[in-house]
Amino acid sequence: MKEKKTRILILGASGFLGHSIYKELSQYFNTYGTYRLPTKKYLNSKKFFEYDHKEDDIVEILQKVKPTIIISALKGLFETQIIAHRHATEYLKLNSETKIIFLSSANVFDAYSKYPSYENDTRLSNSIYGLFKIKIEYLLQKLPKKSWTIIRLPMVFGLKSNRINEIMELARMNEPIELFPNLIMNVCSVEKLTRQLHYIINRNKSGIFHCGSSDLVHHEYFMKDLIKCLGVKKPKYKFVYTTNEERYLAVLPKFNSLPKYLQFESNDVLEEVIKLQ
After folding, report:
1. Which of 156, 109, 173 is nearest to 266 (CA)?
2. Is residue 143 situated within a structural domain?
3. How far is CA 97 from CA 17, 69, 83, 108, 176, in A?
4. Is the CB of residue 167 less than 8 Å from the CB of residue 177?
5. 95, exposed or middle or buried, with CB in 10 Å at 0-12, 13-18, 19+?
6. Per-residue pLDDT at 3
7. Is 207 left (phi over 0), alpha (psi -120 to 50) or beta?
8. Residue 7 is inside which H or E element, if any?
9. Which residue segment(s) compose the domain that 83 sits in?
10. In sequence order, which residues have a C-beta less than 8 Å from that of residue 273 and are 6 or more positions away?
11. 164 and 230 in contact (C-beta within 8 Å)?
12. What is the pLDDT of residue 275?
């Protein structure tokens, strides 16, 4: 994909994932982003647009930027996010040269517990969050296949990620950190995700991608290793058993594997966390 001609609009570019994606892609592409809370950093930039999906219509920004690629990393109220994506799909129907990349979640499979999940497995969720992601996936999949890419993510870690912030705050307050001994999962780092996303854009890939570690880990063991990497002294733990049996919440590729140099294991995620300390 020709980098100069590619205009990328990141919805939610001021959030944890969106900001990291913007930092990676803006070095190579003509990249724009939306933010919700006005700060000097964004107000003084011609590349950023204030946008609150509870109040604003995304089509106005789409018509200004005229992106070739929309990356959706929005957070916030599910109902208005669904409306925003519905409006975006209407825009895409009228602008066939534009495509959307949606950051989805392993939670679209959270009602399944006996196996990891692959790209074409039937989605089924017991959680409000998972059902919300499924709704948006369905919306996008009504478009021609070349117009959408769905990236399903497991837990994502990185500097200033909500999960790491929460661990550090609980440790500071000497409160217990929840561990789920029966949960088997895979993981991702924001650095690995941005590199994979860059590849998907460069190669103009469409369809569904599962972007997580190639190995599976128990939540308890991974989190204990992570907490050790974060330098937390004498952490307190609270063990949470949601079922009597082991359950999986993991997304693995079967049909859309990325090149070997972009694949990684859970230990690589821990190493990246150490580098950020």
Report:
1. 156
2. yes
3. 25, 9, 22, 28, 50
4. yes
5. middle
6. 58
7. left
8. strand 7-11
9. 7-154+189-210
10. 157, 158, 164, 189, 226, 229, 230
11. yes
12. 82
Note the helical H segments in the chain.
16-25, 40-43, 58-65, 78-94, 128-141, 162-172, 190-202, 219-229, 266-276
CATH number of residue 166's parent domain: 3.90.25
| pLDDT value for 269 | 96
Which residue type occupies 79?
Answer: E
Residue 45 lies in a domain: yes
90-126 confidence digits (pLDDT tens): 999 999 999 999 999 999 999 988 999 999 999 999 9
Q: Residues 213, 264: contact at Cβ < 8 Å?
A: yes
Give me the number of domains the chain comprises: 2
Residue listed under structure tokens 């534009």: 98
205: in domain: yes
How many residues in the chain? 277
User: In this predicted structure, what is the pLDDT of residue 37?
Assistant: 83
Is this structure's pTM higher than 0.90?
Answer: yes
Measured distance CA(88)–CA(95) in Å, rounded: 10
Residue carrying the six token digits 């693995």: 252
Residues of the chain with pLDDT under 50: none
- Count of beta carbons in the 10 Å neighbourhood of residue 19: 18
Residue 60 domain flag: yes
pLDDT of residue 167: 95
